[in-house]
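The protein record now logged underneath.
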Amino acid sequence: MMKRVELFNLPFIAAEDHGQVVQEVLRWPLEPERTGELPLLSTPNVDQVVRLHRPEHAGLLNQIGHARYVLPDGQPIVWVSKWKKHKELPARLAGSDLFPALWRQLAGSGKPVLMVLANDSIGDALKREHPDMRWIVPPFYAAGDRVAEREVVDAVLAAWVARPVPLVFLGLGFPKQERLALQLIERLRGTAAPLPLFLLLGASFEFHAGLKKRAPVIFRKLGLEFFHRFLSEPRRMFRRYFVDDLAFLGLAIKELRKR
């Protein structure tokens, strides 16, 4: 069992790198490690930690707290852990670093996967590397549109039932991919086949495919990857990073005061 550190009500994996996670994912399905564990891999960053602690997402926070793998994607999360005695996370484990390492091995072995993507350009690029992958691009819908959400769940479920696979990747962003994965798990629990692992990796696929430019390594090491993304999309990202995500400071103070 991998060591976990409880921070912000989430069981973050404490590891130097992605190596053990990649190896376990490649061997999925595995036996549950904890009672009530969900077959989820989540990589919360600062923005997602903030949003998960809003009242409207309390249910999501509770469920992701039972995920098999929760990786600390944000460097500030690691910093908070280092300030808290006996709660240290050795390193940031970004989804954008996990996916290429995992994808190379999946493509090399030809292991089939199913993906839910934001657009067909991502699927076309990934298909060139891994011919035995399938993908679905749902029509755009608002996160609170339950009718549209149910239609997407039905479409993904039908694709999986037609050809069950051990790994399902979702890249629709928070909270769509989280809500979708949890509903799929609920629907699949009654089937005879082992539950797949749902990997919630947001924009990681686009970075890998070269459709979005990732921050230079120096920005990542300094914990400034968010600033590079702001410079790339200032209008879209200003409010998120410089208004909404300031709430992380309050969450960090609250976390440091916990005994």
About this structure: The chain has a mean pLDDT of 91. Residues 199 and 247 are 27 Å apart (CA to CA). The first strand starts at residue 4 and ends at 7.
